[in-house]
Design goal:
Elements lengths: L15 H20 L3 E2 L5 E3 H4 L4 H6 L3 E2 L11 H5 L3 H8 L2 E3 L4 H10 L8 E10 L11 E10 L5 H16 L5 E7 H10 L6 H8 L2 H15 L4 H11 L5 H11 L4 H20 L5 E4 L13 E7 L6 E7 L14 E7 H10 L13 E3 L4 H16 L4 E3 L6 H10 L4 E4 L2 H6 L1 E6 L5 E5 H7 L4
Parallel strand pairs: 1-5, 7-8, 12-13, 12-14
Antiparallel strand pairs: 2-4, 3-4, 5-6, 6-11, 7-9, 9-10, 10-11, 14-15, 15-16
Length: 457
Amino acid sequence: MAKKPSIPKGTRDFLPTEVQRRNYIFGTIRRTFEKYGFAPIETPSFELSSTLMGKYGEEGDRLIFRILNSGEKVKKADISALSEDNLPRFANSISEKALRYDLTVPFARFVVQHQHELTFPFKRYQIQPVWRADRPQKGRYQEFFQCDADVVGNDSLLFEVDFIQLFDEVLTALQLPDFSIKINNRKILSGIAEVTNEEDHIVTMTVAIDKLDKIGQEGVENELREKGISENAITAIRPLFELTGNNEEMIGFMRDFLKTSEVGTQGVQELVEVFEKTSLLGLERGKLEFDVTLARGLNYYTGAIFEVKANGVNIGSICGGGRYDDLTGLFGKKGLSGVGISFGADRIYDVLEELELFPDDIGHELDLFFVNFGERESLYCLPIIKKLRNAGLKAEIYPSDAKLKKQFKYADDRKVQYTAIAGQSEIDNQSITLKNMQTGHQEELHLDALYKKFSIA
């Protein structure tokens, strides 16, 4: 017996309606990116392992899909490393390439490699798939699309303000009713580590704090102790776990909390500027919220940190980003400031589906479906169909004169908007009988009237 076909966990097939819905999301994001002056680029699906490894921290490196060497390169395998239980060295010897983990690090490589061909500040967007060897679960896949926009070559906070506007405009256009744009600043997190005398453990401290909404205050404090954070430091940051109030009140608290830290004070000041300019412009639906526990991307973010969540839906963050003042330094070009964001299109899809927010007309595969009554009738319909297609309409005729029940079922399955009927009477009258499949309304139209109905000259 043949084995039943299947696909790897964490991947998906997409049916026509699903692809159309995804294209609706991609199109909305793409149009908004271009409205804000971003230009498209593409990079390979896989990079050299040396480009990716070591850029995402220990946990990120574990989630990178490695590509096994082939051909003669297999002979380069370091068998001695395997016998010495040095698995990282062995892995490097049998895998010179890897699937990209995100679009940001490949973009940094792209900028350095093509720096003499680009105009700075360089604004790019990129909509391509990425791969992570993560445990598949709701809203988390091993293959998924990212929709990124980045600016490199300028440290103006106006770009942070623009990205907040982008989040708001895209998600409002997708009719998301309630979402929060959370913001923090890496300098604030550095200041917290400084005033608690834990500068050497900033990543350990902030990664634990970032889990507050998942494991609670007690869980965070226990993790901090396990990681060697002092009791004095835990006591000092305890008020941050209970920080409440509006943005102005919470930022005021942080200004006082970090008054002895130069870097922390700078982070607060940057945050204030972003809030002031955003307030001047306003937001349609998004709520901009300061979140001192937000600590994503610490391995390369240096300033603002963003995360967007759809409220009332248990899916996690749907967008994120931040400033990375020296990411290109990883590839030899120092001092090139950058800031970028990413839309998680697959999670956004799940949110829109759960909340039933996709427009009703998405999934209509055909504008007009012509019933086939036989050879003479189909020959009458074919020139009409060609004219409709030339005008940009989606039209087709059933390939044979099958039973009407079968043809109309096909039309229903294809979510046809109009069914067109041409029998002997219509041929004699040079007309078409048109049926609206949604309302059931049916009328006979002369061909001139048919073309006029669909705005065809």
